Amino acid sequence: MKITDHIKNAKGKTLFSFELLPPIKGQSIQGIFNTIDPLMEFNPPFIDVTYLREDYIYKQHPNGLLEKIAYRKRPSTVATCAAIMNRYKVDAVPHLICGGFTKEETENALIDLQFLGIDNVLVLRGDARKSDSSFIPTPGGHAYASELLQHVVNMNQGKYLHDYMDNTEKTDFCIGIAGYPEKHFESPNLETDFKYLKQKVDAGADFIVTQMFFDVDKYQAFVAKCRQNGIHIPIIPGLKPITTSKQLVSLPKVFHLDIPLELSEAILACKSEKDVKEVGIEWMIHQCKALIALGAPVLHFYTMGNPEPTKRIIQGVF
Ligand code: FAD
């Protein structure tokens, strides 16, 4: 079922969902099931599976030169989605990225998703490869999420890249995009970032999932700005509790967000990592209650392979 229909059917009640990473190469699907099993009692209508771009492993020679020695790819997001749908009978939402795909490969991936009965995709530009300092588009692929989105919209209208696709049925994907309440880090300012967000919505996006944030006022301001500018699709808050003191530094660095002073001071005052986790979970419970009061359609958790903090938060919220 489409995410927009799940939200409509909930009639204003806030839903719960989460996302996970595809397994690391060499690991079995059981690791994924171990993350999902403890969260199934909360009836998530959908589960997202991220997509990690291929990467290279380098060897440094004594002369300082770097040699590319290996190409690393995670097992398929598509296969992980199929396994989830088969076992749990919930909608799996694959993330689809520009990086690492030519347009043909994108189209083939979407045809596979349609064949599997997947109704939703979250379209993204994708992160830079770890071995690159910034995002490098794949030759023959898309450079921005808006281009990828347009590709999916075209397929929904029966317009494929090549004539040989004549016999292919129209797709009917419900399309999600990313939004950044605190702006995307490459954007010079909030206004420019917002202009590109609006471009994606006007091109046919059906829902937005936000980057994580720790200040509900930022989500509220983002939603208000969207509504004032004619963006009326659901805006799903992306959430992750702080669970270690190191994240006070790593989350702002990696995700380019602010941690409110009250939260950072509470974490710095903790005597142990166990206390840090408790503070992070408590903060997120309050944050979720405030989001429900604001009418957030879904509380969407970035589990990062660890279901326990999310489970405790949901128990504390609902
Ligand atoms: P875009 O919308 O393309 O925007 C990228 C930047 O370019 C922004 O600064 C934007 O303002 C600017 N921009 C947009 N269009 C144009 C244009 N036409 N001309 C000039 N500038 C433009 N990454 C992964 O690799 N895999 C995942 O599974 C994944 N899942 C995510 C899920 C969520 C909910 C979120 C919020 C992020 C996720 N990411 C993932 C990270 C995401 O890919 C990065 O944040 C990436 O840097 C930007 O992706 P985007 O889709 O927002 O890009």
TrEMBL record:
Reaction equations catalysed: (6S)-5-methyl-5,6,7,8-tetrahydrofolate + NAD(+) = (6R)-5,10-methylene-5,6,7,8-tetrahydrofolate + NADH + H(+)
Gene3D superfamilies: 3.20.20.220
Oxidoreductase among keywords: yes
Top-level taxon: Bacteria
InterPro entries (alphabetical): FAD-linked_oxidoreductase-like, Mehydrof_redctse-like
Cofactors demanded by this protein: FAD
Annotated TM spans: none
Pfam short name (any one): MTHFR
CDD domains linked to this entry: MTHFR
Keywords assigned: FAD, Flavoprotein, Oxidoreductase
Pathway(s) served: Amino-acid biosynthesis; L-methionine biosynthesis via de novo pathway; One-carbon metabolism; tetrahydrofolate interconversion
UniProt KW DNA damage keyword: no
Family that this chain belongs to: Belongs to the methylenetetrahydrofolate reductase family.
Alphabetical list of PANTHER family matching this protein: METHYLENETETRAHYDROFOLATE REDUCTASE, METHYLENETETRAHYDROFOLATE REDUCTASE (NADPH)
Protein name in UniProt: Methylenetetrahydrofolate reductase
Origin species: Olivibacter ginsenosidimutans
